[in-house]
């Protein structure tokens, strides 16, 4: 698309705002003045040379105050890096809502000018996520895709067994998924053409399941290492595993200061109540304009705590006695968990050192059972502390004090 002729700004220090509509191979750049007037727009390639040309195009029209970019973490990531390296202020811009698109239509120039106006008006004000969680995002996506592929293979095995010959169905049908995959992976297809074909398909799928299981375990281990290094306090919180911690870090970004308050983070996770009153009705509902994956992570954390965290179980009992449903209680828990996660993301949380606990216990020939009996807990609690799978700070301090004096 040919660029509009830029207005002559020679000798002036005109303040301008940029807008970028990004795509896989191209990005469309628009420039507006500080009073909202459209100056020019042009299309560039998503290459280093294209980014340099786009930034030169913006600078040619005056002093660039800010650049609104759609897709700062996807198609616009390369341009965002280049612009920030040049010292420009980049603003993350959401896509225009459906009502606006129905009113004014959609095209690359329209979206680029809309992004520029969003940066000018302050409707968009979020700083883009930095690159510190890019590796976590890559590992998280790969691990989730392994789970999806494994589930698909297991479903295919079950589907084949439904219509398989009776001998095959009777032998492998009653087995559970893991035992069934192990048995099918070891079999040697034999028999007539029908039996051999069905068994070959089942064996292939079973081997795929085992390979994907090993792949997922390796990716989860790498993800756990990356998440723990990135935010040990978040990973150590009760009920937050590698997957949920990774999702929350991805949602917040590696620079959580871009979120001003914990209420904004709760809204981002779809866990913030918003007014839904009308006439005689006075009520609230949860925000639906955030990250569904982050909301699902909070939901899983709430379920884990409802089953294993004493404080959460007591709270659930009190709320149940007050007449609230399980769904309502989970909503309250998600809001409280969002508040706790925000503190972990924005402040330094000190996690007690646990690497020396097991060697210290073994050096004194103390068993897990003996330590647990002295502290009045189950042996699994001591094991959780030593392995770092559960954060129990008070118990960890008491355990360390006892080991040092035992």
TrEMBL record:
The keyword Coiled coil applies. The keyword DNA-binding does not apply. Residues 357-393 form the HTH cro/C1-type domain. Residues 202-229 form a coiled coil. InterPro entries: Cro/C1-type_HTH, Lambda_DNA-bd_dom_sf, Transp_IS110-like_N, Transpos_IS110, Transposase_20. CDD domains: HTH_XRE (cd00093). Keywords: Coiled coil. PROSITE patterns: HTH_CROC1. Signal peptide: none annotated. Pfam families: DEDD_Tnp_IS110, Transposase_20. This is IS110 family transposase. It comes from Streptomyces flavalbus.
